[in-house]
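Minutes, methods subgroup
Present: GH (chair), OT, SY

1. OT presented the first of two proteins processed in the latest run. Sequence and structure tokens recorded below as shown on screen.
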Amino acid sequence: MREEPAAPTPIILGIDDLRPLPRATRIARTSHEGIQLLQEHRDSFIDELWLDHDLGGDDSIMPVVTLLEEAAFNRRPFHIGTVFVHSANPIGAETVVRSLTRWNYQVRRATA
């Protein structure tokens, strides 16, 4: 009897300063850490990317959004199944959704 190969573990990344995000396989707590995390997975398929707009103090998700936008502009978008925006900041969340949707990322507003 042959064993079926195990399905690959999904890559679920989260960028949020406070929430535990139990589904995430890796979590970044700042925009700087988020950029590093995405760069580590640059050539991988990311099943889910969870984004919070406000990351504490003056930090926000916008540097990460800029990275994703620039990659798409340069015709090398990140390979992401779905981006979930789960911010308590409705204006910031809508900005993220609008920005990434414009570049053909699949984006959904969600609660974490």
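2. SY then presented the second protein from the same run.
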Amino acid sequence: MDSGKTTYLTPAELARIRRAASIARLMDTAVRLPVVGVRIGADSVLGLIPAVGDIVGSLIGLFIIDEARRLGLPAHKLARMAVNLGVDAACGTVPLIGDLFDVYFKSHRRNVGIILEHFGISEDELNQRI
């Protein structure tokens, strides 16, 4: 379903993708820091809570991967998504450095990007489709 082919998605499939994109936005890019202009999300804030924050962020990431599975993404793309989440989780366990890494890596947005790329749509197109 890649390479620019038009993909017809059911309303339920579009809702799943929109939900995953909204969660990724909340987790990775919800707020722009005023002076530096970097976008952060709940994942960066949760990461400041030792152990529990990283676990919660990973569980939310697993939800996005599960949505991708339900949408029928092939195993190799699900594996790429799992690697993104694993890198984020592993690096997030390192105090302070892991929190800074989290601000720039944005695994949830990367994983939604894999879903969008699979269906050949951009986030703007996703928001325009009815």
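Chair's summary of item 2: DSSP finds seven helices and two strands in the chain.
Next meeting: continue with the remaining queue.
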